[in-house]
Design goal:
mainly alpha; 77% helix
Length: 154
């Protein structure tokens, strides 16, 4: 029996489970790409920022963060922009941390929902299949072949 035949015998819930699987895969790929981009070059920039701040060379931070597309560079640019505008730097960084965390956590709630829902959908498919199989006993005359086919699907 091929996997396509097994999928067909699974009934209509299999299509919903396939949709759940594809959604999880799409979210996983999206998050992987975002996390990879967010951390690419971040350790080196973090070390450079730490070194510049210890030496009190704040002017070296802007060239170091320029041209980089990671979370550390975003936070450095936010701090430098707040400093240049005369704003409260810790408050600007807190807001930037919140935005970055929100971006990193985006769509993870969908994963939680699907992980909870998919087993219940599978169970619903199993129960509906059992109900369908045992409904054959309601018939007055049950052929052996129909009974075997119904029980084989269980």
């Amino acid at each position: 029996m091929t996997s396509a035949e097994l999928f067909e015998k699974g009934g209509p819930m299999m299509y919903l489970l396939l949709l759940c699987s594809l959604t999880v895969a799409a979210i996983a790929i999206d998050r992987f790409m975002l996390y990879r981009r967010a951390s690419q070059g971040a350790r080196a920039l973090e070390a450079e920022v730490s070194k510049s701040l210890r030496g009190r060379k704040v002017n070296e931070l802007a060239p170091a963060a320029e041209g980089q597309d990671n979370m550390v560079a975003y936070l450095v640019r936010t701090a430098l922009d707040a400093r240049a505008a005369g704003e409260d730097v810790p408050m600007a960084l807190d807001a930037a941390y919140g935005e970055a965390a929100m971006l990193l956590r985006a769509r993870l709630n969908y994963l939680s929902m699907i992980v909870t829902m998919a087993p219940l959908m599978g169970l619903l498919g199993t129960i509906s299949g059992m109900i369908e199989s045992f409904s054959i006993f309601n018939c007055r005359q049950v052929s052996r072949w129909r009974l075997r086919a119904a029980l084989a699907r269980l």
